[in-house]
Amino acid sequence: MALVDFCNRYLDHAKLRFVRNTYDNKHRLCRRFLEFLGNPAVGDVTPEDIHNFLMAQFETRSAKGFNEDLKHLKAMWRWGQDILDIQTNPTTKIRRLPADRAPQYTPRSADVLKVLAVATREERVFLNCFLHTAGRRSEIFRWTWNEDVNFEKREVRLGTRKTRDGSMEYEWLPMSDELFEELWWWNHRPIKGSPYVFVDTSLNHYNKPYTTRRRFLAGLCVRAGVKMFTFHALRRYCASLLADTHKISAKTIQRILRHKNVTTTERYIQNINQDLAAVMDLLSEKGCHEGLSKEVEKG
Predict the structure, then answer these.
(1) Residue 263, class by beta-carbon neighbours within 10 Å (0-12 exposed, 13-18 middle, 19+ buried)?
(2) Residue 286 pLDDT more than 60?
(3) Higher pLDDT, 160 or 127
(4) Are 135 and 129 within 8 A, CB to CB?
(5) Could you tell me which of 121, 113, 116 has the C-alpha nearest to residue 185?
(6) What global pTM score does this model have?
């Protein structure tokens, strides 16, 4: 089997099993790998070929790039052995490089409040779904009214494919009183017939759920005059807030974030060096967002 055919068959499998971001990473890896090696037979690829490719990634990218590509190559060859009966695995003895984990930015509470203050009512509903669930971007984006929001039980459902076999795994979490009120969106949604809680209203993607919304937070941060942060940074912010302000245990935060391993949770819990008690009052106080709206209108 030619290497290009091996890569294509694995990508067909990956497209069905993994989320879009993971699939895209695997697709980029295969493209780089083919550009480096050409198109030899799979059985002719040696550990030295793999190592030389990975060292090129280290030199042009970083140790992290080396390790990320090695992870995907190992997964591809394991799949090839299981499904295509490929006899040898040239990745077996190649080890990861030591790599320091760069600290990831977590916004300050003041900056989160500034962003909320400049947001429109619709934008605040969207943001508060993250702030009151600590959900992943894809989990909020795929919300549907019928399957993921239960007003009667005051629960929301979050689901992820970060499982061993790539299948969806769901968990219901209680709605806070604030989130229950924020989901007034049901009565004010722009496309009444859409099953999705948040849908794109642009011409090219009308009535489709968001998949990235890259410019949304960046634009809000510019308007608020704060350092840009991402949806995932809001997830770290929620974890840090629970740990620093309310002294919630890592085990409990692990349950909220739905991490399989508590060490992953511990990386999220960063000391953001400030008193957040007042911030929680602001975020949780009934009617606080309406107050913020009035301040924005006065400005």
Answers:
(1) exposed
(2) no
(3) 127
(4) yes
(5) 121
(6) 0.69
